[in-house]
């Protein structure tokens, strides 16, 4: 179920969200009635959820202040560095337990999203709202945190156990305008991997009728793809509006 978290910034409930994908992934969603949450360390961005060197320097300074009674000698500085390295190692390990499902926040379709995440003839996008996204997890057993990602090149100083590193990306990714659903797996090795298709993440149950508001078909797809998607939706009892993208429509020019 959706739960609030102090590190997750909320957006307006009426905000439109999009998940761009190909037809096989959409079929997988209908078959499983689950969203896939990828483990953070599997993301393409090598800095995903990581502490930068500048952050570690700042953490060392903070540790020195806590350890030193007056001027810090070399022993105090070394102890502070050791503590920060331990903290860093623990955080890196967390990247294997924090899992993420991503959505694009935008009032309209996005050309870059079509090109990158739903490219080709068989691309489509599930369109929902922030309110629907939160409510679709009502029957899920797992606690799901949801909030927007911040984009800047400033170094964020996360505290021990904070989720902030997983909600911060470099400016070069700002075009993604991402809203993230996060689930933190148990760290006691109690998770049953045999129930999953792969070890790269977890599947979490959702209510598809709540989640899906509309289905958008890629502007690169022929019109007959609409009939295929409509037929698939009927088989799965999904009665939602299907919209063929008009981003290349020149009727108004």
Can you give keywords for this protein?
alpha+beta; 2 domains; 11 strands
Task: Describe the overall structure.
With 253 residues, the chain is α+β, with helices and mostly antiparallel strands. The protein folds into 2 domains: 16-45 and 99-244, no CATH class; 51-94, no CATH class. It has helices spanning 23-32, 53-67, 74-94, 111-117, 130-135, 208-211, 224-235, and strands at residues 16-22, 34-39, 98-105, 123-129, 145-148, 150-151, 168-169, 178-184, 201-205, 214-217, 241-244. Strand 10 (214-217), helix 7 (224-235) and strand 11 (241-244) form a beta-alpha-beta unit. It starts with 15 loop residues before the first strand and ends in a 9-residue tail after the last strand. The mean pLDDT is 85.
What integer value in Å does the Rg equal? 21 Å
Please give the number of β-strands.
Answer: 11
* Count of all domains: 2
The whole-number mean of residue pLDDT values reads: 85
Strand content: 15-25%
- In N-to-C order, the SSE pattern is EHEHHEHEHEEEEEHEHE
Main pleated-sheet profile: 9 strands, mixed
* Percent helix: 25-40%
Termini separation comes to 47 Å
| Class derived from helix and strand content | alpha+beta
Tally of DSSP helical segments? 7
Low-confidence stretches: none
Based on Cα principal axes, name the global outline: elongated
